Every structure is written in structure tokens, then in C-alpha cells.
Amino acid sequence: MYTDKLVIDTYIQENNRYKNNLMEISETFFNNDSVTVLKFISLLDDQNSEFYRIIFGMRGIDMFLNDFNFSSLDKHKFFKLQVEAFSKEFSSSSQVRSSLNQKYKMQEKKISLHMDSAFDVQNAIDEPAELLNIRSKLNIKYIGIIMDEFEQNKNDQEFLSFLSSHIHMFINRLFIAKQRKYELLIYSFLERFYSSNLARARTYDS
Q1: CA 148, 136, 131: angle at the middle one, nearest 5?
Q2: What integer pLDDT is reported at residue 188 of this predicted model?
Q3: SS3 content of the chain, % helix, strand, coil (to 5)
Q4: Phi-psi region for residue 44, left (φ > 0), alpha (ψ -120 to 50) or beta?
Q5: Domain count, the chain
Q6: pLDDT bucket at 206, cuts 50 / 70 / 90
Q7: Range of the domain at 33
Q8: Inside any domain, residue 188
Q9: What pTM, to 2 d.p., does this model score?
Q10: Could you give the CA distance from residue 173 to residue 60 in angstroms, rounded to a whole number?
Q11: A Pfam family this protein belongs to (predicted)?
Q12: Distance (Å, rounded) from C-alpha 9 to C-alpha 50?
């Protein structure tokens, strides 16, 4: 593990994106994300690095939304919107979506196992999962303040945009290059994952 490039830039607060009176909380979240990702990267070897970054991204986002008490249905709706918005950035969006669906199908079983915390030790990802648990414990005291700011409305577009911006920054920290590509891939995988979970739940209930 080594650093091959260091960029020094000026930090500018984005009050419009993260809401002025929540900016300090957002910066705390950014710091917690940075520490978490750095510790995760220190656990990686080069082999299978891409897959485990994707899984860590998926698990990290899933747990972030769990902190806000999102149900599987809430998550599916959220990522369906994200995928639709992102697909517009890419030419031949139907072709891109088809390619992402094929990639998910090829790894669906492996993804499902790695998304289930009951298999963390078996999958040798218990240390990365614990990093995310620690992050949630650090963030949890601020969740109520954020929800009150948006009047406890999980369908508020400004609230969803707030969450989306934080998730976007988390993914940027996780991948060295092609962050937008990986962001779309992770959103697509999560949308498929929650869709499958909801379908199974409906089958069990019927």
C-alpha cells in the first residue's frame, strides 16, 4: 500500500448542498467517513480490491440509511430515483442499464452473502463491517437533529438530496478513479438488491 499522488486544494463549504445550519454536522459525517474509508483501505490487498470496495460501499450506504430508519421499500424507492437520474448522464442509458444488470446477475449470490451481516466472519469482512458499526455509533447522536430539520419527512426532496450528497462523497472517498461510474454501479446494484429482497418478502407473505 503506497500513495502515488497527493492533491492539496482549498476547502470551500457547500452550504447550499448540505444546508447552512447542518453544515457542522455534515463536516462531522465527512470526517467520520474519511477515517472509516482510510482504515478500510488499510485492510485491502490488491487481489479482489474492486469487489470489496464495491461491497464496502454498498454496506456503508445501507447502514447509513439504516441510521435514518429507512425500510427496504424506502431504500428501493431512493435508489430507483438515483439510478434514473444517473442514467441520464450516460449515452445509450438502456445499454448501460442492461450491462449493469448482467454484472449484478453474475455476482448476485456473492453480493447477497456479503450484504448479510450473519456471514461477515465467514466472508472475512467482519473487520470492515465493524468499522461501519463504529461510524454509525459516531453519527447516531446527530440523526434526530437532521430529521427534525426536515420535519421527520423521509419523502422530502431536500432531505433526499441531502442524503444523496453525503452518499456521493462517501463513494468519492472509496474509489481512486472513475467515481461516477462506480456510483452508478453501486446505486444499480443496491436497487436490484432491495428489489429482490422485497420480492422475496412478498412471496413469504403470500
Answers
A1: 165
A2: 95
A3: 75, 0, 25
A4: beta
A5: 1
A6: low
A7: 22-200
A8: yes
A9: 0.89
A10: 12
A11: Lant_dehydr_C
A12: 27
15-52 burial code (b ≥16 CB/10 A, e <16):
eeebbeebeebbeebbebbeebbeebbeeeeeeeeeeb
40 domain-assigned: yes
Q: Which helix (H) or strand (E) covers residue 154, if one does?
A: none
Q: Which residues contact 188 (CB under 8 A, 6 or more apart)?
A: 79, 83, 97, 100, 101, 104
Residue corresponding to grid cell 440523526: 143
Judge whether 205 lies within some domain: no
Q: Is residue 168 part of a domain?
A: yes
Place of cell 463513494: 171
Least confident of 90-99, 117-126, 129-138, 164-173: 90-99
Distance CA 63, CA 129 (A): 10
The continuous run of DSSP H or E covering 170 comes out as helix 157-174
AA letter at 103:
K
Q: How far is CA 145 from CA 14, 26, 54, 148, 167, in A?
A: 19, 12, 30, 5, 18
